[in-house]
Amino acid sequence: MRMIDPDLLRTFLAFAEGGSLARAAAMVNRSPSAVTAQMQRLEALVGETLLAPAGRGRSLTPVGEEFVDHARRILEAHRDAWLSLKGARADGRIALGSTQDFADTALPALLRRFARSHPRVRLDLRIGRTKELTAAYEQGQIDILLTMRQGPAADELLVLREPMLWLCSENGLNFAETELPLAVLDPPCGFRSAAIAALEDAKRPFRIAATSPSLAGIRAAVLSGIAMTVRTGRFLGSGMAAAPDNLDLPELPVAEFSLRLRPKAGDAPSDLAALLADELPRLDG
Fold first, then answer.
1. Helix, strand or coil, per DSSP, at residue 41
2. Crossing angle of the two packed helices 267-279 and 62-87, in degrees rounded to 10
3. pLDDT below 70 — which residues of the chain?
4. What burial class does residue 44 get, using C-beta atoms within 10 Å of its C-beta: 0-12 exposed, 13-18 middle, 19+ buried?
5. CA 33, CA 22: separation in Å to the nearest integer?
6. Chain Cα centroid distance, residue 27
7. Cβ count near 28 (within 10 Å)
8. Residue 108 in contact with residue 280, Cβ under 8 Å?
9. pTM, whole model, 2 decimals?
10. pLDDT tens track for 33-84
């Protein structure tokens, strides 16, 4: 039986998710030539061609597409085993601060996995706005921070880039006015600023129809059909849908989220942060 280095599988999945060797290289922090060499080693180990030429790049072969599921299961088992061994005797407390974007999507499943391997560790969760959570993190009150990116930081473990989307109720819009009604968070808010800037640049008339300090309030306003909003795909579902093309809305920038770990936070926070850094890029909304 041939053993496969987990690093090769991580790089293979980075290619499968990124769609190119260049994106895979950025995701695993290696050069494109090193990624190519890793893929050649993996193909030699499994005895099958996983990537094939496609134009100027590469694409997954049918065998490669089938191997994606195997690679994910292997890495998940590897991660769970590693966490269980490290977490069996771990105790203490982890303070995790996150925006609602992740609290409603990726975090529950990942925290469930972590709790199984670290049963004695207490999790203190803070779900809120980026500004308040970042201030608490910088004051040492939070060990792990998952929020909109404020700029490069030495303690960043991961940067997630996701396109911003115009969103509305899947039941349609309850307005016929020429001004586009917006539902936005109270400032400061990166999504609010991006929406307003895009509309102003496009000289599209708009008005602020609803404001709220929380995403729950924004969701309620949008679901009522009285306004639209701007978030990422993590906000889709439960009655929310992408705005129809016939509204001819301007393009939006990419949202950046960062995962940060407080220096000297300890073993248990480091274990959870490593799990989040590995798995968040693979989990969409």
1. helix
2. 170
3. 1-2, 83-91, 175-177, 283-285
4. exposed
5. 9
6. 13
7. 18
8. no
9. 0.71
10. 888 899 899 999 888 899 988 887 888 999 999 999 888 888 888 777 776 6
